[in-house]
Amino acid sequence: MAHISASVYTSHVPAIGVAVDLGKSDEPYWQPLFAGYEPSKAWMRDHTPDVIFLVYNDHANAFSLEMIPTFAIGTAASFAIADEGWGPRPVPDVVGHPDLASHIAHSVIQQDFDLTIVNKMNVDHGLTVPLSLMFGQPDAWPCPVIPFAVNVVQYPVPSGRRCLNLGKAIRNAIESYDEPLKVQIWGTGGMSHQLQGPRAGLINAEFDHAFLDDLIADPERLADKPHVEYVREAGSEGIELVMWLVARGAMSDLAGGPPPSVRHRFYHVPASNTAVGHLILEETNMETSP
Amino acid sequence: MALDKPYQDIPGTTIFDADQSRKGYWLNQFCMSLMQADNRERFKADERAYLDEWEMTEDQKQAVLDRDMNRMISLGGNIYFLAKIGATDGLSFQQMAGSMTGMSEDEYRAMMVGGGRSIEGNRYIGERDDAEQDDS
pTM here? Predict the structure, then answer.
């Protein structure tokens, strides 16, 4: 059967993608940020999964105001890179996993989450920047990726509690898939940032660190944090952090298993307008499981 | 019954909710059209004529012509849509965000490098005035 081996969390700031694409990662502004992801790349070389289930949000690229799905799962065989207005990022197209994605859609809908199934979709920086951070600049991404887009652009967005519970349902779905695949689930976006209005540029490091602490040790409590607290404390776009709870909900400790191991934790300010947070949680018992 | 909107007391922040989205539908859809290179060219060649193809209000059109991002947001624009105008103008997200703060580009960049805008005094509308009253 398939299983979840680890969860990865990271901000997906578009400027990071620009820095990678233009070869600026050694510049003084960017060097500390990319240095923080070196341990992650090393870890990833030894722990490349068979499939990544990547939770992110579309930023008015795949979805305009014509349709606003709250949860959208990409079931296509491949996903082209979106032109967000500056031209598409020069990164490989994303290869999907239609079989597993369809299985997850079927299972999760039966668990009462009304997913939108998307068979044609371009993916934007929300999905490609995390891949760049974890894999650098390969000719092809090392494994298939299932895009899972959450609406965090138009309010109301799903609550933290619903996101955590969705993660639990995704875990059930993956564990009921017959093929013995090693799957990672990634939660992306955040951390504190605000891109609009006179309060733009807001950063709240204290909030961010507390969020990381709770995400590791007490996600059930974190799930009760109301929207307005994210917006007030972490900025209007800081609400993206609810997507990290989807990935966290899929870890085995919330289904009676042992707590995950923290393989890496990193925090840096700024990347453009944004605080960058990053975490790798690995399931502890996977090496010994059959 | 009125909807619960607990986010209206946050200073300098407009939440893009369903009401704002209705108000800004055509403004945002105009922005989406700029994802196509030929539309960007047509817009740049004659902004007014291009805007007149859309069912936007005159206020919305004027805000676009003025590149007044705060005004566009108050009229229903959302930053991820409005970013397409910035992309057409060759601006980064940081330049766009900074333009809404009353700071110069250099001042804004320096603030971010210095750790960003503090949350202190920025949680509630009137908070800073209250603090000043406490001090007096």
Answer: 0.96
- The number of angstroms, rounded, from the C-alpha of B73 to the middle of its chain's C-alpha atoms is 4
* Interface test mutation site (partner B, options A195, A207, A237, A239, max chain B beta carbons within 10 A): A195
Give residue A277's domain range: 3-288
pLDDT digits (tens, 9 = 90+) for A224-257: 999 999 999 999 999 999 999 999 999 999 999 9
Of residues A236, A113, A225, A100, the one with CA closest to residue A160? A225
DSSP percent split of chain A into helix, strand, coil, nearest 5: 35, 20, 40
Q: Do B22 and B86 belong together in one domain? A: yes
* Interface predicted TM-score (ipTM) of this complex, two decimals: 0.93
Query: How many CA atoms within 13 Å lie on the side-chain side of A19?
Result: 22
Q: Within this chain, do residues B77 and B131 fall inside the same structural domain, yes or no? A: no
Say which of A195, A203, A206 has its CB closest to residue B97.
A195
pLDDT digits (tens), chain B, 136 positions = 778 899 999 999 999 999 999 999 999 999 999 999 899 999 999 999 999 999 999 999 999 999 999 999 999 999 999 999 999 999 988 999 999 999 999 999 999 999 999 999 999 999 876 544 443 3
| Residue A28 in contact with partner chain B when CB distance is under 8 A | no
For residue A232, which residues of chain B lie inside 8 Å, CB to CB?
7, 10, 123-124
Q: Which of A12, A125, A264, A278 is catalytic?
A: A125
Contacts of A83 in chain B (CB under 8 A): 35
Tokens of A160: 């933290």
Total structural domains within chain A: 1
- Confidence class for position A86, pLDDT limits 50, 70, 90: confident
Range of the domain at B113: 101-136
Q: Which of B80, B96, B102 sits opposite A198 (nearest CB)?
A: B102
A275 interfaces chain B, CB cutoff of 8 Å: yes
> Which residues are within 8 A (CB) of B111 and not within 5 positions of it... i.e. 6 or more apart?
A201, B103, B117
User: B81 and B111: one domain?
Assistant: no
**Counted domains in chain B:** 2
Are B72 and B109 contained in the same domain?
no
- Residue type for position A223: A
pLDDT given for residue A284 in this prediction: 86
CB < 8 Å from B in window 61-90 of A: 61, 64-66, 83-86
Using a CB-CB cut-off of 8 Å, the residues of chain B touching A207 are 119
Predicted pLDDT of residue A290:
43
B interface mutation test: which of A18, A65, A157 has the most B CBs within 10 A? A65
A178-to-A145, A181, A197, A250, A287 alpha-carbon distances in Å:
18, 8, 49, 18, 19
